[in-house]
Amino acid sequence: MTSDNDTAPQTVVRLHDVRKEYGDAVALDGVRLEIAAGDAVAVMGPSGCGKSTLLNMVAGLDRATSGSVHVHGQDLAGLSETGLALFRRRHIGMIFQFFNLIDDLPALDNVALAAQLTGTSARHARRRALELLDELGVAGRRDTYPAALSGGERQRVAVARALMNRPALLLADEPTGALDSRSGEQVMDLLIDLNQIGQTLLIVTHDRDLATRCASRLVELADGRVARESSLDDLERSA
Ligand code: ADP
Ligand code: MG
Prior knowledge:
The protein contains seven helices and ten strands. It is an alpha/beta fold. The protein has a single domain, classed as Rossmann fold. Strands 6-7-8-3-9-10 form a six-stranded mixed beta sheet, with helices on both faces. The chain has a four-stranded antiparallel beta sheet with strand order 2-1-4-5, covered by helices on one side. Strand 4 and strand 5 form a beta hairpin. Helix 3 runs parallel beside helix 5. The site of adenosine-5'-diphosphate has 11 residues, from strand 2 and helix 1.
């Protein structure tokens, strides 16, 4: 883990008084959040409360209006657009409600591409992609295009893609929102397993069950502010 400024090495995410405005609308208003390496944090709250905006700030997909966002020791405000894109590819994995796979690439190439974009050779990228698909139980679908995969398989392929570059942080925006309950539970279990082997997670979800099973900490947003933050360590996990 790198740390080239004042962020402690084991702090993967630090949001300080983050405000985000879209025109007259305030999507985030004074959000503070710290995530240490190995943490699993769930963000909950009603539709429109700023969950995706928060994730996009952390991913460097959008910039804060004011306040600071540090990820993996880097102040994101100090990066150009190109710098942000490179930073994201190297250090952040993302999964989405609707998978965001590339329709005209088979599963293996969807996963391998993530590493090829950071300069890994095609041969190495494909080898690691196959290992990940195997670990996630979808190696048999390597040559299948996204349209022919089930929802659960698509999300497994998307998780493999997100893990390709061994990201410091895995971000998930409603990862089970488009899945039937059984596939959703499998993806949930996958995220729990990943966290147990040390993967730092930030998960946005509507689903309290997902949040309490996957996360050690729950952040509840309301109208762009942190309304409540609670530790789930003492609660019995149903996993
Ligand atoms: P959530 O993910 O919790 O449903 P969002 O973060 O998507 O909420 O949105 C928070 C608020 O910011 C909403 O009022 C939404 O309409 C607004 N918003 C989000 N993204 C944009 C955008 N690109 N342009 C304008 N308004 C936006
Ligand atoms: Mg959202």
